[in-house]
Specification:
The complex is a heterodimer of chains A (323) and B (457). With 323 residues, chain A is α/β, with parallel strands linked by helices. Helices cover 52% and strands 13% of the residues of chain A. Chain A is built from 13 helices and 8 strands. In chain A, strands 3-2-4-1-5-6-7-8 form an 8-stranded mixed β-sheet, sandwiched between helices. In chain A, strand 2, helix 8 and strand 3 form a beta-alpha-beta unit. The longest helix of chain B is centred in the last third of the chain and has 27 residues. The relative contact order of chain B is 0.09. The interface between A and B is large, with 50 and 54 residues.
Chain lengths: 323, 457
């Protein structure tokens, strides 16, 4: 049984999460799966033109040119070896390969780890305007609902209004927040915040940082410093560092992930605004080039719309056309 | 780096071509393939890439490849011309009204940089074009968006219509327009809420604002990092609102902004400004031809010259230049020049604009900038007498300066050595001037760059 029919079978009965996925990925699916389907109905047998068009569909989904070319080659080889000419079968193989390409890069635990006597520190980084602050609020909400004591640290002292924005969220969520003055040293704000979280026996402290382009050496050095001082207060912290990436990001997303992985211990990606794009293939490109997994996925504006990343559901959302 | 920038990529392709005597079908095929990959990696839209490479191919084949130009030069020209065409070949500016306020509406996806760009645009209009600017805070949804604009308005020194988050954006816009008309502002810029394009309700709100205030310009913010979807985004906004222009934000990153370039090609919406940094001053008028040059690695000399002109008082610059030429160049002048260079922006940003400048890593940039700051600290610890007469420095004076600023003797020596080198350079330039020849490189004319000081070689 191919993956597509497996997924169809698996998600026949939709639970709330699958529903959120399929709604949030509506645009992607319309784009990707209907293009695939359209392609397979236009060809009786696959040929070079077919593979060219397949390549176009993949590249237009932002999966990265390397990933696209490699996967096309794999599918082409398999098609030749086994004499498969049926376009529908070829599409099945394509989706299989996409699954394997992602899954073969190692095991993934999405949820954050928690410890007995020490808070889990989650450092949140990313370029400007990807939705860091909102994502932090959603993550906090998720763990508050799981009964954890959560605290926020507003270490974005640069962007005007950033601290206020996070403070509004903390108030709405009814949790503590540590802030600093505008233009204060973000590392000192982070240090004080983490210290306070430790004293107050929090389970989770989420540190917001200013958006920074990965080309700004001094800002990247600042990030390294934030990471260092947190480690001074709590050994081994931050245990988790998430890079937030906007789903509409193109191939620069890979460059971003590499640059941030250089200065922090990047443990995961959160992809945001998935409901606003018809692409989001950058997930596959980053996993392909760096092996960093996607941990959470933002499928809408509501608090519940930030979901654990699930490869099956993602591919279902992307590749399977709703009947 | 996952891959080189488009500019690097093309220049390495051209280098490969350079050794070859003529343009053959075969080597051009290789080059076109690489251009295609480079453009795709730069997020240029797939269809635009297809068209682009086809056009280049057609033009290259149609031309006499055996002419006197060497093949790589000719290809640079063809690719360049094609790029300029892709980017739109005219300067595009804001159309100002003469007898009433010009109303500009800023729209875009969430996080594309609307609020920041609103501030930058206000700064540009106020300081460069001497306009009286009014801002309107129309993003009532994102927490603290109004606070952000409020702070920005104060930094720029322009007025803001802030009615809080309880009033509808349409009403805010109308009130702002009324104020702009009654109090004779030149320009009103309305910041709107960021939105995902799918959000019909918010799209409708934008249309309502548009209908209510009838703006002269509707500018779409485009993130230079946007992927293949950027064209669709621009299309949707354009269909709904009939855009008059676009602003590319975050061009200071290493994203080549390829997707944003396709927008010009596929929607016809002209790109009017580009955001090139985080500071309020970091918004440039967009020049398609220069952008094409930049993509091709030819540098962006015009922008640099304009930047230098703005920051340097012309009279003062001439005075410094004369002083330099006459050999009476002292540490005060060196410090002054360094400060001017700093005022123009980050060293890295400046260096990118100069063609032929060696590629330096961000770390090297940071080191050079740190060195410049060190120089400043050290010179500031000298007495005015010492600054005008650097020759008086002996051991005890050096030691005192070193102690005074907490640096080492070696640091002080480095400043003095650099000063000597620069002075020698000035003398050389003077002899060039007398003999009527220009110094090689010709950069000396910019004067201020003498202060680049400890730039690592």
């Amino acid at each position: 049984m191919g993956l597509i029919s497996f997924l169809k079978d698996k998600f026949k009965k939709k639970d709330a999460v699958t529903e959120t996925y399929s709604k949030g990925m509506e645009r992607s699916r319309k784009n990707f799966s209907s293009k695939l389907k359209n392609l397979s109905t236009r060809y009786k047998e696959v040929n070079q033109d077919y593979f060219d068009e397949l390549e176009e569909i993949l590249i237009e989904s932002d999966v990265g040119i390397n990933f696209a070319l490699n996967i096309i080659e794999e599918v082409l080889n398999k098609s030749e070896e086994e004499g498969i000419k049926d376009p529908e079968k070829i599409n099945e193989i394509l989706v299989d390969k996409m699954f394997v390409g992602y899954a073969s890069k190692g095991d993934i635990v999405n949820e954050l780890p928690f410890y007995e006597n020490t808070p889990t520190v989650l450092l949140v980084v990313g370029v400007n305007g990807v939705g860091k602050t909102t994502t932090i609020a959603k993550l906090a909400y998720r763990y508050i609902k799981q009964g954890k004591k959560v605290m926020l640290v507003a270490a974005d002292t640069f962007r005007a209004g950033a601290t206020e924005q996070l403070t509004v969220w903390a108030e709405r969520l009814g949790i503590d927040i540590a802030t600093g003055k505008q233009d204060a040293d973000p590392a000192s704000v982070a240090y004080d915040g983490v210290k306070k979280a430790k004293e107050n026996k929090c389970d989770l402290v989420i540190v917001d940082t200013a958006g920074r382009l990965q080309t700004k050496a001094n800002l990247m050095a600042e990030l390294a410093k934030i990471k260092r001082v947190i480690g001074k207060e709590i050994e081994g912290a931050p245990q988790e560092t998430f890079l937030i990436i906007d789903a509409t990001t193109g191939q620069n997303g890979v460059v971003q992930a590499k640059a941030f992985a250089d200065v922090t211990n990047l443990t995961g990606i959160v992809i945001t605004k998935m409901d606003g794009t018809s692409k989001g293939g950058i997930i596959l490109a980053i996993r392909d080039e760096l092996g960093v997994p996607v941990r959470f996925i933002g499928l809408g504006e509501k608090m519940e719309d930030l979901q654990e990343f699930d490869l099956d559901k993602y591919l279902y959302g992307l590749c399977v056309e709703e009947d | 780096m996952a891959f080189e920038s488009l500019s690097d990529k093309l220049s390495s392709i051209f280098k490969k071509m350079r050794g070859q005597a003529r343009l053959t079908e075969k080597n051009m095929e290789d080059m076109l393939k690489e251009i295609r990959v480079a453009l795709l990696e730069a997020d240029v839209n797939y269809k635009v890439v297809k068209e682009f490479t086809n056009n280049v191919k057609e033009k290259a084949i149609g031309q006499d490849v055996l002419s006197k130009l060497n093949p790589s030069q000719m290809l640079v020209k063809i690719v360049h011309d094609e790029l300029v065409e892709l980017l739109g070949s005219d300067d595009s500016e804001i159309h100002y009204q003469n007898n009433r306020p010009t109303v500009i509406m800023m729209v875009g996806l969430q996080g594309s940089g609307k609020t920041t760009s609103t501030g930058k645009l206000a700064y540009l209009l106020k300081n460069k074009l001497k306009k009286k600017v009014l801002l309107a805070a129309g993003d009532v949804y994102r927490p603290a968006a109004i606070d952000q604009l409020d702070q920005i308005a104060k930094q720029v020194g322009v007025d803001l219509v802030n009615l809080g988050t309880k009033v509808s954006p349409v009403e805010i816009s109308l009130k702002a327009k009324e104020k702009a008309f009654n109090e004779h502002y030149d320009v009103l810029i309305i910041d709107t809420a960021g939105r995902l394009q799918i959000d019909e309700q918010l799209m409708k709100e934008l249309n309502d604002i548009k209908d209510a205030v009838n703006p002269d310009e509707i500018l779409l913010l485009i993130d230079a990092m946007a992927g293949q979807d950027a064209v669709n985004v621009a299309n949707t906004f354009n269909q709904q609102l009939a855009l008059t222009g676009a602003i590319m934000s975050k061009l200071d990153g290493d994203a080549r902004g390829g997707a944003a370039l396709s927008i010009r090609h596929m929607t016809g919406v002209p790109i009017k400004f580009s955001g090139v940094g985080e500071k309020l001053t970091d918004l440039d008028i967009f020049h398609p031809d220069r952008m094409a040059d930049r993509i091709l690695g030819m540098g962006d000399v015009m922008t640099l010259v304009e930047k230098a002109q703005e920051e340097m008082d012309e009279k003062e610059a001439r005075r410094t230049a004369n002083k330099m030429m006459s050999g009476k160049f002292d540490l005060n002048d060196m410090l002054e020049n360094m400060r001017k260079v700093q005022k123009m922006g980050s060293l890295g940003g400046l260096l990118k604009l100069i063609p032929g400048m060696p590629k330096i890593s961000p770390e090297q940039q940071a080191a050079a900038e740190k060195e410049m700051r060190n120089f400043e600290v050290i010179i500031n610890s000298m007495t005015p007498y010492e600054r005008s007469n650097p020759d008086v420095f002996k051991f005890s004076r050096k030691q005192r300066v070193a102690n005074g600023c907490g640096k080492t003797l070696a640091d002080v020596n480095r400043v003095l050595k650099k000063y000597d080198q620069m002075k020698d350079m000035m003398k050389q330039m003077e002899s060039y001037r007398k003999s009527g020849r220009m110094p090689p490189g010709g950069l000396g004319g910019l004067g201020g760059f003498g202060g680049m000081g400890g730039f690592p070689q």
